[in-house]
């Protein structure tokens, strides 16, 4: 893609002032450098997972990437906490190494950029962000930008395409009674595990809203009258709804942030890549969730119906989960303040925009503009 992008960039009029590019599109940095254009790279996962990958890249720089690459190291590695080392071992053990190699190649170009934009909140990952700021010579811009004043946003959605009024359904449920379930867009659980989940939900007596991509008709037939199964929903609206009391999640970073902004306790069920470290953050650092315990991700061992029933009943019991509910509300307050006027994300966004405008003013009269590219 690099040659056609380079060609397009040179043809644009007015000329480009600056680029914002997804980290995983590594070629824009090279193109921008040849054209002497400033480039900001956008990292869409957590700051913690970026640091984990950076540390992994440093440790394997002179080695091939393999599952046992850390076996030559002691239990303690200078500059890496015990939790980060555990994350490294988990990421190596439970992921396809081809994906990890691709991620390492992508982040290798970050030092050549002029700015790194991280989709996070300063207060959620303060220590990690301090480590990143010490690592690079350029600004680390922390912006949880999709969530500014989310309660007043009017999203363009395709709810009508599915002919399911899930918000109306939520309006008719008791406060904090609904378990919202979403296990991601790309990877899912096995059919056998799905059957255990369905059976557990029917037995538990818990009300639930379950988003399942693709064909959902067979689930609708099996899920009874206490649940609603839909192929899509506006997740941020759902997590902000007063009837929703918990989120059973795969722990993708966007879902994790949306749960934090919604003040919703999480039941973690990680499946892939950064989701396991994200789950650890939820359980050990933020303490705003519980874990649906499982064996290694690649294992064929199922979490049984009875195990799931016990966990979700306790998770949705207001008395038993008071501590994580209080923590969830505490973090919601932190994030609300971060995106409010004068908050950390608000200030960071303003600073980034001012930096771009300074570049534009310095090129006034030459007709330069700024472009954003990404996945």
Automatic annotation (TrEMBL):
Sample GO molecular function, one term: UDP-glucosyltransferase activity
Coiled coil: none
Keywords on record: Transferase
SUPFAM superfamilies: UDP-Glycosyltransferase/glycogen phosphorylase
InterPro entries registered for this protein in UniProt: UDP_glucos_trans
Keyword Transferase: yes
Pfam families documented for this protein: UDPGT (PF00201)
Family (UniProt): Belongs to the UDP-glycosyltransferase family.
Protein name stated in the entry: UDP-glycosyltransferases domain-containing protein
Species in which this protein is naturally found: Glycine max
